[in-house]
Amino acid sequence: MEKYDKDIDAKQHELTMLKTAKANDLARLQELAKQYRECEQVVMEDRVEKENERKRRGQEELEYKSCTKIQAWWRGIMVRKCLGPYKTGKKGKKGKGKGKGKGKGKKKK
């Protein structure tokens, strides 16, 4: 009977140790699961942020190209209609007026 009691005590102790290990493992698993969820959330936020940044850059690039086209179109209108700094007038023509040697130097008598 003594051997039976010793065996039961040993098995009971082993069972207690296993239950404690299981509880510790379960607590560690829950802790790791929580940490995993937090890390996964950070990764998802980073992905969303990168996607938004990519979209923003694409939009800026599209706006830049559109602005360039509008400016080129407007510049073409200004040149074709001779408006603004593209006017052709008296100020823009060179070579007329005083010629070489005229107005300076010897005077005619």
Beta-strand fraction estimate = under 5%
Structural class: mainly alpha
Amino- and carboxy-terminal Cα gap? 155 Å
Helix content: over 70%
Mean pLDDT: 88
H/E series = H
Gyration radius, rounded: 45 Å
What's the story with the biggest beta sheet?
A: none
List low-pLDDT spans. none
Task: Say how many strands there are.
Answer: 0
Number of helices: 1
Structure summary:
The protein has 1 helix and no strands. It has one helix at 2-80.
Describe it for me?
- The protein is mainly α.
- It is 72% helix and 0% strand.
- The chain contains one helix and no strands.
- It has one helix spanning 2-80.
- The longest helix is centred in the middle third of the chain and has 79 residues, at 2-80.
- The radius of gyration is 45 Å and the shape is rod-shaped.
- The protein starts with a helix and ends in a 29-residue tail after the last helix.
- The mean pLDDT is 88.
Task: Describe the structure using short key phrases.
109 residues; mainly alpha; rod-shaped
Layout of strands and helices, then pairs:
Elements: H1 2-80
